[in-house]
Design brief:
Layout lengths: L1 H20 L6 E6 L21 H13 L3 E6 L2 E3 L4 E2 L16 E5 L5 E4 L1 E3 L4 E2 L5 E5 L19 H4 L4 E3 L2 E6 L9 E5 L4 E5 L11 E4 L5 E4 L4 E4 L1 E4 L12 E4 L2 E6 L2 E3 L6 E12 L11 E12 L8 H5 L10 E11 L2 E3 L6 E3 L3 E7 L2 E3 L6 E4 L5 E4 L2 E3 L6 E4 L2 E6 L2 E3 L6 E4 L4 E4 L6 E4 L2 E6 L2 E3 L2 E5 L5 H9 L2 E3 L2 E3 L6 E4 L2 E3 L1 H8 L6 E2 L2
Parallel strand pairs: 1-2, 2-5, 3-6, 4-15, 5-16, 6-17, 11-12, 15-18, 16-19, 17-20, 18-21, 19-21, 21-22, 22-23, 23-25, 23-26, 24-27, 25-28, 26-29, 27-30, 28-31, 29-32, 30-33, 31-34, 32-37, 33-38, 34-39, 37-40, 38-41, 39-42, 41-44
Antiparallel strand pairs: 7-14, 8-9, 9-13, 10-11, 10-14, 12-13, 35-36, 42-43
């Protein structure tokens, strides 16, 4: 009897360890998916010998098992899966089974070898009378998508289109006029139902893999709790520009892990998480997307560690649109850690903490060479902490903030940014709303702590054009700033406050602060 009890305890212990480490749980069903297997079928049993063919069909089966409280692990074998959207079934919707926390894991058998693509291969191109120019039938009439910010910002037609063409995996630029059709560009002619492609001289379509994006979304998870997505690459989604849409869309869900994934070369947003909680985004890349790398809206309890959102907003850049709503945005996010994050060379801001940001920490992030600000903290009640980070060589400010309180800037390297290293902007009071408590929040710039930073540049700290003396006086009365090291060209740095330029000595005298700080080359 004692041996039986010991064996049962051992099994329970091993099962617990395997569950924690990502191994196969003892109480879960495994479904294999292998698009390249000769016997693969979406009607098979999902065994390794008879795997399913599509991820979407496996997910639908997993959802049916979840309804019976049976956990599922979907193991996806290497290959290109041209499918989407992969959809769930609102299991945890309030009128369905909101308390069902049965887990579903979807993971690559080998990380980085599974590609979910929104494109299809296009062959049988026809030559034209112009050398190097070829055409192909085009059955879609998407036109120009609606402007999601109509009345606020004008958006060029090229930004609101969503056709994408890839030549041997490389995205080609789209043009709207035949006279702009240089080698390496393409045109959609909806009037004649054609794609027109200009290749380099002497190159033939048959010599290349040519893919055209035809699916607007790849992953659509709504009201589905306890889901893990691991090791999958998502590419080529032709998502129209809409703040709540993305190639990978997760909404109304809790306890979701998105790990070791890549979302790239999509038309709009790579990853969107909305109205969800307990979200982990780990060791993933959301790079080279047409608008934003990621977007969060009304999300609580976020752990985002080891990620990258770089080189995004290429579509906006084609039409000179890099400000409004661009910048790897978090909006109405409470209790979040963003750590070891990289956001470089975006055609926008590096990270944008939009309004209603509370209990958010940025730790050891790199925000560099972005075409606007490195970091924008906008109308947030805080606390917001930025520490141990490098914010450098951005075209505009390193850190810009408007109407935000309880901000800590500690132990960072803020250097080489174009207009100012730290810019403080906004006049009077702005009212936003806490999405959890539903309380109105009248916000001004106040209660900042700026300590232990290396701040290098011609302008260290500045106020924006609309800041008035009363705003500055209010901000200064709640400011703690000390133990920083300032430097600039020739050992000089300046502070541009209320349209006046101060030296470091002026700054110390007029603020009464930074007494233990230093300046020099």
């Amino acid at each position: 009897m004692m041996r039986l009890v010991a064996f049962i305890l051992l099994v329970a212990f091993v099962g617990s360890i395997l569950g924690q480490s990502g191994g196969l749980r003892l109480d879960e069903v495994r479904i294999d998916v292998d698009v390249a297997h000769p016997d693969a079928s979406d009607f098979s049993d999902g065994s390794s010998a008879r795997p399913m063919k599509s991820i979407g069909a496996a997910v639908r089966r997993a959802v049916e098992l979840k309804k019976k409280r049976i956990a599922t692990r979907i193991v996806v074998h290497p290959g290109v899966y041209r499918e989407g959207p992969i959809e769930f079934a609102y299991t945890n919707w309030k009128n369905n089974d909101p308390g069902n926390d049965t887990p579903i894991v979807i993971e690559a058998a080998t990380i980085g070898t599974v590609f979910v693509r929104g494109s299809e291969e296009f062959d049988a191109w026809k030559p034209t009378e112009t050398p190097g120019v070829f055409t192909h039938d085009w059955a879609y009439s998407w036109g120009v998508s609606p402007n999601p910010w109509k009345g606020d910002r004008e958006v060029a037609d090229i930004v609101l289109r969503r056709e994408m063409l890839f030549l041997d995996g490389q995205r080609l630029d789209q043009v709207l006029r035949e006279k702009d059709l240089a080698p390496g560009r393409f045109l959609i002619d909806e009037r004649t139902g054609r794609v027109v492609l200009n290749l380099e001289a002497g190159s033939l379509p048959a010599d290349h893999l040519i893919e055209l994006a035809v699916r607007e979304r790849l992953w659509d998870q709504n009201y589905e709790n306890n889901v893990t997505i691991r090791g999958i690459n998502f590419e080529h989604a032709s998502t129209p520009w809409d703040p709540g849409d993305a190639a990978v869309r997760i909404s109304g869900s809790r306890n979701v892990v998105f790990e070791d994934c890549k979302v790239s070369n999509t038309n709009w947003q790579g990853l969107y998480v909305g109205e969800s909680s307990n979200i982990k985004v780990l060791s993933s890349e959301m790079n080279d997307n047409g608008g934003q790398g990621w977007g969060f809206f009304r999300v609580t309890d976020v752990e985002a560690v080891g990620n990258e959102t770089s080189r995004n907003n290429w579509r906006g850049h084609l039409g000179g649109f890099d400000g409004w709503s661009m910048g790897n945005k978090l909006l109405s996010v409470h209790n979040a850690l963003i750590k070891n994050h990289v956001a470089v060379e975006n055609y926008s801001r590096g990270i944008w903490l939009d309004y209603d940001i509370s209990a958010v920490v940025l730790d050891s992030v790199i925000l560099s060479r972005n075409s606007r600000d490195g970091l924008w903290i906008e109308a947030s009640q805080g606390p917001v902490t930025v520490k141990n980070s490098t914010i450098s060589d951005n075209v505009e400010s390193g850190i810009r903030s408007t109407y935000s309180r309880l901000v800590v800037i500690d132990n960072n390297r803020i250097t080489g940014n174009g207009t100012s290293q730290i810019e403080l902007d906004g006049t009077g009071t702005r009212v936003t709303r806490d999405f959890e408590s539903r309380r109105d929040l009248p916000l001004t710039l106040r209660e900042w702590v700026i300590t232990h930073n290396e701040i290098h540049g011609p302008v260290s700290i500045s106020t924006g054009q609309v800041v008035k003396r009363a705003d500055w006086t209010e901000f200064l009365s709640h400011l703690v700033i000390d133990e920083n090291r300032y430097s600039g060209p020739g050992g000089n740095t300046s502070f541009r406050i209320l349209n006046d330029t101060w030296t470091f000595a002026n700054w110390q005298a007029r603020t009464g602060q930074d007494r233990r700080s230093s300046t020099g080359s």
